[in-house]
Amino acid sequence: MKDLRFPIRQWPSLVMLVCLAALLIGSLFFGQWPDYTQMTATLDQPLSRLRWIVGDISEVAFYKHELPALGLLLGACLAHWAYVRGYRWQGFAICYGNGLWPWVFTSSLLSLLLSHLLWGWTLAGGDWQPTFVAFVSLPAAMVLLFGGGWQVTISGAVLGALLVTPASLLLVNYVCIPLGLPVLIGNVSGMAAASVAAFMMCKRFPSWVKLGQRPNGLQAVCIQPDYGLVWVLRRVLADFSEAPFFGNELASLGLLLGLLLAYVIAPAAPAYGSQMVVQMVAGQALASLVGVLVWRRQWQARGWYPTYIPIVSIVPVAVLTHGGDWQVVVISAVLGALLSPPLATAISERLPSHVHGYIGNVLSMAISTLAIVPLVGLIAEGGV
């Protein structure tokens, strides 16, 4: 019988998660829950800065709030615990069933904290900045590509903070904002450019990642999917946590429950105070549902397909740009679901072996958003 105990060297990630939860819960005893505008106006205060940093963990889904962030991490922790023990209710095995979730989380969190240490000064004016990008990009991709262990984990964290965050900051502030482009294009283009540079450096200096490890004795519960209705619904839910490389229903459920709680407590706090959480989530769910149904044969043939892309790009950008009318929600969801996954796959299949395939996904986000969001506005306004 295989040993399914949680390796002691992977406990640091759980310790960090517990400390994060303790800091957040402790912060809730101080005054009323601020809305997004109040938080950004007081970023010079430790509590507001803490909330911003924790909110970075859920920002990839455009929720930007500490409760969905904490829910995501607690759900992911539960999913990994179930995976380690081989429980059938674990859902889709977190981090694709490789047992690397603790290292993925540790590298991503370390990179996020280091990014704030190096680039947190950019928030001094109270304006939004893409400080979240290191948490959902290079560090996790390096662990998944090269394996776990402290050498890869720390290398990914440092490179994410030194390359990804400043690249996105530059593109957002000096390209997207002056040209009036959605800032998401700068976010994901920065991720892609910096990550390609980092992977090239890793190929040039293989000692940075040569000690990558993969856990022994950890296996997902292998159940042959029937790709029926239940699988479709599970896959739609799992897509909500795919961007941080979790891809698990429990993690997604924690994310969405945290978002619901945040919205009930203070409607103007999550999603940048837009008060369009309902429209945004409806469009994201519809986009995943359409994508999973249309591309189900690709899921069957490949085992994985990037149907999550419009959830974290086209749909929320369209809603925040053009409003939450049903035409905007439906058109952005359908077009995003039809066009962005095959584009991502076409790009990823042409990448060299030393570059993680997520590069194709983020490039597809940039291209699809640039093409689809203006079209959504024209169609919704009756211009086409």
Automatic annotation (TrEMBL):
Keyword Transmembrane annotated: yes
Keywords in alphabetical order: Membrane, Transmembrane, Transmembrane helix
Domain of life: Bacteria
Transmembrane helix among keywords: yes
Transmembrane segments: 12-33, 67-84, 96-119, 131-150, 157-175, 181-202, 250-270, 276-296, 303-320, 326-346, 358-380
Protein name per UniProt: Integral membrane protein
Protein's organism: Pseudomonas capeferrum
